[in-house]
Amino acid sequence: MRNSTSVEQSIDDLAHRYLDRAPGGRARAGLTEFVVFGLKQAWACVFGAALLAVIIAARLWYPDNAALARNDFLTIAAIVIQVLMISFKLETLRELRVILLFHVVGTVMELFKTDVGSWAYEAEGFLRIGAVPLFSGFMYAAVGSYMVRVFRLFDLRFDRYPRRWITAIVAAGIYVNFFSHHYILDLRWVLLAAVVLVYGRCVMHFRVFRRRFKMPILVSFLLVALFIWFAENIGTWSRAWLYPNQLEGWQAVSIDKLLAWFLLMIISVVLVAWVYKPEPLDAADATQTADAAHIQ
């Protein structure tokens, strides 16, 4: 795996030693690729999954009368998870820089959005800025962690990736609109059209185990946005934060939020692309991708 951590390389080597001895056959090969795909996705989500598990556990079992406020406990737990990720070499220091950038970008948005009433946190604890507990920034960092890990776990390569300065302009417009639409015209549909125009021709190639596969990059954006929407439903159910329509009783997050998460994906991709420059597919990998397309 390109740029893998030592732990990930050890896991990959073990998988190869076991699976390379396994009997062949198209059905088994296809099943192997499917299982490895799921395992790699789960491994990429390890930071977000750990944080979500702590949020659920705090909702179910954290005592209401505890001396340490629940929000402060969540912040400390998030810090511990991040320290462990680095200590056990599950993330590189290079990746930590972009994850911290996600943290800052997300916290700034949280400060604004809570101020205008888009959503709210319980007003408790000391580890917060205004009405925003510090653990909220780690939720954005979890998205960043997933993005950078997926990039190297699947050795992503791209056909017709747009120029990075163009993607940066689109991402900046999306970020500004998250703030400005409260005061002026909401341009999210215009920005969605811009995303489709800029990324529409781009194809993402990813290696699972022995083979490469391909997918339109816009489809991958939508799938990740859908996954985050499911996680957001769990987060609001746990009362880590609430939307105005959930204050009187929990209900599912509006499906309209998918568009917001889809657009946020563009910001995420642009940030990660400045750490891992998107590379085109080389000739050997292109042949592998073509072969994978014929697997039944």
Shape: globular
Find the count of extended strands (DSSP E, 2+ residues): 5
Strand order of the largest sheet: 3-4-5
- Major sheet summary line: 3 strands, antiparallel
As a percent range, the share of helical residues equals: 55-70%
Structural class: mainly alpha
Distance between the termini: 26 Å
Order of helices and strands: HHHHHEEHEHHEEHHH
- Residue windows where pLDDT falls under 50 for at least 5 positions: none
Proportion of residues in extended strands: 5-15%
Mean pLDDT: 86
Radius of gyration: 20 Å
**Total number of helices:** 11
What does this structure look like?
- This protein is mainly alpha-helical and 296 residues long.
- The chain contains eleven helices and five strands; from the N terminus they run αααααββαβααββααα.
- It has a three-stranded antiparallel beta sheet with strand order 3-4-5. Strands 1-2 form a two-stranded antiparallel ribbon.
- It is globular and about 55 Å long.
- The mean pLDDT is 86.
Based on the model shown, name its key terms.
mainly alpha, three-stranded antiparallel sheet, globular, 296 residues, single chain, two-stranded antiparallel sheet, 5 strands
